Amino acid sequence: MSETSQSGSPCACDDVLADMDSYLDKELADDRAAAIRQHLLDCSSCASEYKVEHEVKILVARGCAQHAPPQVHARVRARLRFLGVNCSDREIRED
């Protein structure tokens, strides 16, 4: 995917898309993040891809925020004891 931005410079869409996960996770250096931010303002197809990836990230985070019920924790602890794994209740979070 390569197109020309509104400013007339060629987009580096492949590079931006390759760094999209790192950008979303705020793992990029400030200058690279700023370059991607600008590219997203100039390039509608990359901006659309960003919106999709951002929504997916939100949905996954929301799904992962759910906690297992206490019965599941009890079964896991019992299974660990059965397997000979020695762990205290403090080592297994119940939140």
3D architecture notes:
With 95 residues, the chain is mostly helical. The chain has two domains: 64 residues, no CATH class; 29 residues. It contains five helices and no strands. Helix 3 packs across helix 4. The N terminus is likely disordered.
What is this entry, summarized?
Helix content is 61%, strand content 0%. It has 95 residues and is mainly α. It has 2 domains: 1-64, no CATH class; 67-95.
- Pick out the low-confidence regions: 1-9
| Coarse morphology | elongated
From N to C, what is the helix and strand string? HHHHH
Mean pLDDT: 81
| CA radius of gyration | 22 Å
What is the domain tally? 2
Helix fraction bin: 55-70%
Largest sheet: none
Number of distinct helices: 5
End-to-end Cα distance: 44 Å
Structural class: mainly alpha
Tell me the strand percentage band. Answer: under 5%
Question: Topology, pairings included?
Answer:
Layout (H helix, E strand, L loop, with lengths): L12 H6 L1 H5 L5 H13 L1 H21 L5 H13 L13
Helix pairs in contact: 3-4
State the main characteristics.
61% helix, elongated, mainly alpha, 95 residues, 2 domains
